[in-house]
Amino acid sequence: MIEKAKRKPGSAAAAGKAAGGKKTPAAATAHRKAPDKKKPAAAPAAPAAKKKAPAAKKARSANARMTAHHEPPADIAPYKKRKGEEYMNHKQLDHFRMILTGWKKSLMQEVDRTVTHMKSDSSNHADSADRATQEEGFSLELRERDRERKLIRKIDQAITRLDNNEFGYCKLCGVEIGIRRLEARPTATMCIDCKTFDEIKEKQIASA
Asked: Which CATH number characterizes residue 106's domain?
């Protein structure tokens, strides 16, 4: 009896081998119950991104307004020059005066809108993210206002040249700037050749 009891463990191992090396049901179950645990995916930091959205939206809005108001008004039809017409006659001068005064009026309205907006939106926010967004918006508004003020000064100078019959001629070489170039940039003071040479010279000085 003792010998048979001693041979039982060996007999079980032999039986397992005789079964063709197949795993017992208990071993197979244990194998199935021990799969590799996958690490849970990290949750995206959505709230932080949402807080930055208003500032980005205001930046895009401000840039769009800059582009719109820093260009001549598009509601004035281009001037149709007649054959043999004298350059910078009264009709042409009136045409450019209308462009410049309309442009200045649009810019002045935008300056007033900027001041009104900053006064009405000057409340103190308790949240630091809201304060940062407000400060960024004010910074964009102030930069826009500074650019508009400089552009208004250039428009006033162009109107002065109109009054003195100096409008439309290059300040360096004295040649005609051209109607189409002036319609694209009414504050231009140089012809395209002098302007190109001036830009090349500025680049060479900057790179030196």
From this structure: 1.20.120.910
Say if 62 falls within a structural domain: no
Q: In which band, very low, low, confident or very high, does the pLDDT at 146 lie, cut at 50, 70 and 90? A: confident
Of residues 111, 114, 105, the one with CA closest to residue 75: 105
The Cα-based distances of 155 to 9, 10, 95, 112, 150 in angstroms read 105, 106, 14, 18, 9
197, burial (CB in 10 Å: exposed 0-12, middle 13-18, buried 19+): middle
- Residues of the domain holding 137: 86-167
Do the domain assignments include residue 123?
A: yes
Q: Quick one: tokens of 32?
A: 């199935």
36 pLDDT tier (thresholds 50, 70, 90): low
166 vs 169: CA distance, rounded Å: 6
Instruction: Report yes or no on whether pTM surpasses 0.90.
Output: no
Domain check: are 175 and 107 in the same one? no
Q: What is the enclosing helix (H) or strand (E) of 103? A: helix 90-120
Find out whether 37 and 118 touch, Cβ atoms under 8 Å: no
Task: State percent of the chain over pLDDT 90.
Answer: 41
